[in-house]
């Protein structure tokens, strides 16, 4: 699981250093990390592994996405802290039940934000089926590198243009319980 924590730590490092615009989104909705939703089944904290303890509100349906019929699970954490005003939907392959996508949507005062995670290229590794491609899509109908909190005016409201960001991880190899050099996490 260290490799998974490494992936999440690296992702959060890039987001917090401002390498991507959606760092404001992740900072504001810190509950996505606390709840274990970010990075889907790659996270050791994946909330669907302990539904009884977490007690989320779940709603099931099927939905066609890009021509593919998928299981859709609307997920509402028991504690809404850090996920307030987000609509969270998890999508699974109809036959294999692989977690293929998570969609986070936010609507507020005419602002629409979409944060989407996609998981592809599933292969078996040490008896587990893991995605070897993880892509984050982020779009906003206006520039929002410093998202304000609900109820506060947006600092760039009306000043910017729409933003779209895509970031892709492609795993060449998964290793379990591998040593990770702590220097990897030092920011200079």
Strand content: 35-45%
The best one-word shape is: globular
- Number of separate structural domains: 1
Helicity range of the residues? 10-25%
> How many angstroms separate the termini?
26 Å
Helix count equals: 4
What is the H/E string? HHHHEEEEEEE
The major pleated sheet works out as: 7 strands, antiparallel
Number of strands: 7
Specify the structural class. Answer: alpha+beta
Question: How are the strands of the largest sheet arranged?
Answer: 1-2-3-4-5-6-7
Query: Mind telling me the C-alpha Rg?
Result: 17 Å
Unreliable stretches covering 5 or more consecutive residues = 1-6, 13-20, 143-159
Summarize this structure as a short list of keywords or feature phrases.
disordered N terminus; 4 helices; seven-stranded antiparallel sheet; 188 residues; globular; alpha+beta; single chain
Structure characterization notes:
The two termini are 26 Å apart. The chain is globular and about 45 Å long. It contains four helices and seven strands. The relative contact order is 0.17. It has one domain (2-50, 60-177). It is an alpha+beta fold. A seven-stranded antiparallel sheet has the order 1-2-3-4-5-6-7, with no helix packed on it. Helix content is 15%, strand content 38%.
Short description:
This protein is an alpha+beta fold. It has helices at residues 2-16, 23-28, 31-34, 51-54; strands at residues 57-65, 68-76, 86-93, 99-108, 111-125, 128-140, 163-170.
Write the layout of secondary structure elements.
Layout: H1 2-16, H2 23-28, H3 31-34, H4 51-54, E1 57-65, E2 68-76, E3 86-93, E4 99-108, E5 111-125, E6 128-140, E7 163-170
Antiparallel strand pairs: 1-2, 2-3, 3-4, 4-5, 5-6, 6-7
